[in-house]
Amino acid sequence: MTAEFGVFFLVLALVVSLLQSTYFLPIVAMQQMLARVMRPAAYLQNLCIALALAVLIVLRLNSDFSVENVVAHSNLSLPTLYKVAGTWGNHEGSMLLWVFVLSLFGALLPSSKLQNYTLAAQSALCAGFLSFILFTSNPFARRFPPTIDGEALNPMLQDMALSIHPPLLYLGYVGFSIVFSLAVASLILGKADREFAQLVHPWIMASWSALTIGIGLGSWWAYRELGWGGWWFWDPVENASLLPWLSATALFHSNIVLKKRGQFAHWVLLLAIITFGLSLLGTFLVRSGAITSVHSFASDPKRGIFILVYMLVSIGGALFLYSIRSHKITNEGDEQIVPTSREGLIIINNLFILTACSAVLLGTLYPMFAEIFGGEKLTVGAPYFEATFAPLMAIPLIFAAVTPFVTWKVSSLKLALRSMLPALLAVIATAILLVAIGGIGEKTISAIAGFGLVAWLTVGSVSWLLRAGKKRAKYAVFLGHIGAAVFVAGVVASSLYNSETQGLLMVGDKLNIVGYSVKYDGISDEKGENFTAKRANLVVANQAGEEIVRLFPEYRTYAIRGSSTSETAIYSTFAGDLYSASGETSAEGKTPIRLYYKPMIYLIWLGFVLVCSSGIVSLARINYKKTGQKI
Amino acid sequence: MKPKHQRLLFVLASMVVLCVGGLFVLSSFRDNLVFFYSPSDIVQKMPENTKTIRVGGLVKAGTIENLSGDKIRFVITDGAADINVSYGGLLPNLFREGQGCIAEGKISAGNEFVAEKILAKHDEKYMPKEVVDALKKSGNWHGDGDAR
Fold first, then answer.
1. Residue B24 shares a structural domain with residue B78
2. Residues A468 and A474: beta-carbon distance below 8 Å
């Protein structure tokens, strides 16, 4: 019976959310009546979806193989952790998680004048997704006759990061739904002022932080699991998470202007709609299988069309609303914006970030359109993204060091530039140092561009922090900007000074890589809970021939799906990572071994953490203020 | 300069910057498109040998030969046409005879496809979408390899 309870809770949630969405109907008596129940209804709706999610988890824990979803994505030998985490490792379960987060944010909305319209919009979004789940991807569908064992989870996905990566990404994606709903509500009421900016700020920051760390975890997972030494492949699904991140970054910077100066209201509303649109686009790309990607393990064109229609209705509807209502929204004062004031620089930065975002969007969607309209199959190579994204994002990062020094309203760029003197000296010192080490060449020029930016942003941010005095947002600003610098440092170091080598090794053979000599010392058989592994034994020695460490990369075979993965082994030091992966041993006893040396790649993950913490600090500050203490 | 002129200059300058950026994006875009061909497509269309392309199909049974060094040579087929592929480097896991595979590289003068990359496949059930379509087109598709 349990599976049917799941369906029951989902239907109940659908009914409640449909009822809530009728608040949009301009019938005063009905609105008055609904206004009283909007909030309790939001709680009820969330409770129902939470219960449905709980039912699915219980079904998986009990290995109920009369349920299609459990048969397809779980089996008896699966470790308990992955029975739970695998709930959102498949299409149906992940959509359930999506809608749970969607409704959770509705339930958490603080009360304000915008509350009822926001909840109505949020419930409409919820109703759409609930019908999507019930009609195209019911996680509780029965299977008859039941099977004795299930088919297992894709072994690639059996990893700790999996248990937290999708929920965090979803928190981010779906978090922008409430920003979207608030924007819709304020368009209907015709008012978007400082108060509105205050209200949306925590939601943007929370979603943006979750998205940041979700993307970070995803790339950390790819780095450790895929066995090719990379952490970002410009895969459509990766891009899909980057797009809303970029527009959200633009959004919260502009929202600061609205919060502090009461300006840019229109731009903020538009960005709020675009950001959620890009989140939906990401969901569409992953779920429709419209684009070939390593992630598209569960795709169905029917689902794609549903999400496409959903996207057109919600985003199209919101843009229509914007076009007929935005004239009601006014900025405070009518003074012109000075391009070299802080708000001026922020808007310029916004343009560059959105251009970078469009460049990524073009590369991601073009293969789909080329196939639909030209019948041609193609992919856009990673060099395109690298060549366009890096320079386009470098510009906002150069500005990021200067803008905090600039004052609001009036031009003070000259003064700010004078404050950048230490940063300029740091850039020159970096350039001299790099030329001294590497001579003049193409690599040195790239290094100067990369590390020069790092030096500029680091020294600029630190000298600003030292002079920021009692500015309330100083730690959030500092952490975000320094985090970006640390991230760029990791990217530049690990990609410019990366070394790699590979070979088919017999026992006793050696590979050399930057000061390490790695000897292949045979393989041993290992047995895991649901796989067998060939574990290569690698002895890492320094130049003097002394053994430093042993690495054990594994080649795992999962009996139940006949699939295999490479489990990497990494030796991390302060200078960088020595990364090893092994493959299948051939009949003649040759084992393929790949080695990479990635200098300072940990700075990338540190960058993600710092940038994310900037959002959290900015959130914590708000809570602090609420408790009435002075800052 | 009056504020009005300053603003006009600002708008013009940003337009110029954006246009230059746009041109730069588009030119880089054109250079980095990687087209996908099935072995039949290659026989029919003969793509130019300066561009990087992808070829996908099944690894023909009995054709994998190990050459000196770490080089290997094999044949990719879609049932209707074959193409010889040479590759020096480590193969991804699950590279097997009779399984789907995508190779990225260039066509050499001797009509051999010199692969720089063999794309990873991580599940026996999984068949790249392009390969499935290529097999369907040549009428050699039997059953769905990836039901889910």
1. no
2. yes
> Which of A123, A158, A193 represents a domain boundary (last residue)?
A158
Same domain, B27 and B99: no
What's the number of domains chain A is made of? Answer: 2
Residue A542 resides in a domain: no
Residue range of the domain that includes B1: 1-32
How much is the ipTM here? 0.78
Separation CA A474–CA A59 (nearest Å): 48
Facing A381 at nearest CB: one of B32, B89, B94: B32
Please judge whether A351 and B123 are an interchain contact, meaning their C-beta atoms are less than 8 angstroms apart: no
Q: Which of A381, A503, A555 sits opposite B93 (nearest CB)?
A: A555
Question: Considering CB atoms only, which of B28, B91, B123 is closest to A388?
Answer: B28
Check: CB of residue B87 under 8 Å from CB of residue B103. yes
At A343-399, the pLDDT tens digits run: 889 988 998 999 999 999 999 888 888 877 877 788 888 889 998 899 999 999 999
- Dihedral-angle region of residue A15 (phi above 0 means left; psi in -120 to 50 means alpha; beta otherwise): alpha
Q: Is B99 on the interface with A (CB under 8 A)?
A: no
Residues from chain B that touch A377, judged by Cβ atoms under 8 A, are: 35-36, 130, 133
CA–CA distances in Å: residue A281 to residues A269, A284, A398? 18, 5, 30
Task: For residue B2, give both structure tokens.
Answer: 């009056």
Spatial distance between the Cα atoms of B2 and B90, rounded to a whole number of angstroms: 65
Residue A181 maps to a domain: no
Q: In chain A, what residues touch B124 (CB-CB under 8 Å)?
A: 561-563
Query: Does a structural domain hold residue B8?
Result: yes
